[in-house]
Design brief:
There is one protein chain. By secondary structure, the chain is α/β, with parallel strands linked by helices. It has 3 domains: 8-131, Rossmann fold; 132-199, Tetratricopeptide repeat domain (Serine Threonine Protein Phosphatase 5, Tetratricopeptide repeat, Alpha Horseshoe), CATH 1.25.40; 201-286, Serine Threonine Protein Phosphatase 5, Tetratricopeptide repeat, CATH 1.25.40. The chain contains 20 helices and 5 strands. It has helices at residues 16-29, 41-50, 67-75, 94-98, 115-130, 134-147, 151-164, 169-181, 185-198, 203-215, 219-232, 237-249, 253-266, 270-283, 288-300, 305-317, 321-334, 339-351, 355-368, 373-381; strands at 8-12, 34-38, 55-59, 85-89, 107-110. The chain has a 5-stranded parallel β-sheet with strand order 2-1-3-4-5, with helices on both faces. α4 (94-98) links the parallel β4 and β5. α2 packs parallel to α3 (67-75), α7 (151-164) runs antiparallel to α8 (169-181) and α10 (203-215) runs antiparallel to α11 (219-232). The longest helix is centred in the first third of the chain and has 16 residues, at 115-130. It is elongated.
Amino acid sequence: MIDIENMSILVVDDMKSMRLTIRKMLKNLNLGTNLKFAENGREGLEILHNTKCDIAILDWNMPVMNGIEMLEKIRNDKAIRDLPVIMVTAESERDIVSEVAESEINAYLLKPLTLAALDGKIRAVVKRVNNPEPVTRHRLKARELEEMGDYESAIEQTRIALVHKPSASRLLRQLGLLHFKVKKNSIAEKCLLKAASVNKQDAITRAHLADYYINKNQFEKAGKYYLELLSLSTKYIDAGMDLAEKLLIRGFRRTALDIFSRVIARSKKHNAAREAVIDICLANNEIEYPRELLEQSIKENPSNYDMVYKAGLVHQEAGDWEKALTYFIKVDRHVRSHVNAKLQIAKIYYMNHKILKADDYLNQILRIDPGNEEALALRRKI
């Protein structure tokens, strides 16, 4: 039982002014006598591992370790996994928090905080902890049985919990994962599909479905869920990139390109993601999409001559020699020591029987790199 007036509260927020504001509010509300403070999730976890806390109030947006990352650490730590957590978030971050709202957060507060909102949320959370609903009791009993290895009994307890809350995606997901453990994969799949259908923000279930379909080599189905995952969270960007490459290799071009587009749009390192996608596509003989990406990249940053050079290679691969030549010459004019651009120019001039121009560029290459084998081989043909 939590004594609401004498409880221990951990407040984690990187802004000193917000920590002081929450401290003042809690004192005015006469909530808790033992208040602890941390500037980020990492410091907050250290406090939790060394001191008993009854409830935690976490800010979502913090450096070092944000609120969601800290929450994941809490829920995966057997010693503190049942700690009640209230997440504080700005209105613009509401969709991000809702990604894990059903399964992980006990409550959340929108900024700016008010005394009434803080008081109401804390009292509601404490009341639920002190007087757990039947669904909570059965869910926790199922978890205990699962950890003992009694999966069939855990399934039964989860089914009973669902009677009390039939549309809880967390319970439906857990029922599915338990059926995987008893090798009833078709039932497990149905449970996960239902969980995904009742909660459009449930990223965790979608990740399990995607992994299930990848293991069954049903890559296009996996791709569908990765598209949804990438709309919900940025944590799946690297895995999405890997899956898109597999889809591209296996001929599921449209789905692969859709995932690549979503990855680029969602990545914080937008340009780096676009360049990585371009390289993957080119390595797998996909020409049209990287050509579009390169044109877009060059339009945004005309002086990125690595991209200009790649654009030349793409147009060359597509058989548009004139366009390719334009890009290679642009690189050569601005990066005079770019041997590869000079070599491509020489090859195109040679192919077009402009021998003197080809020879001029070969001479430039050999002055920079006398042992360049490709240039020497082309010189012998002239």
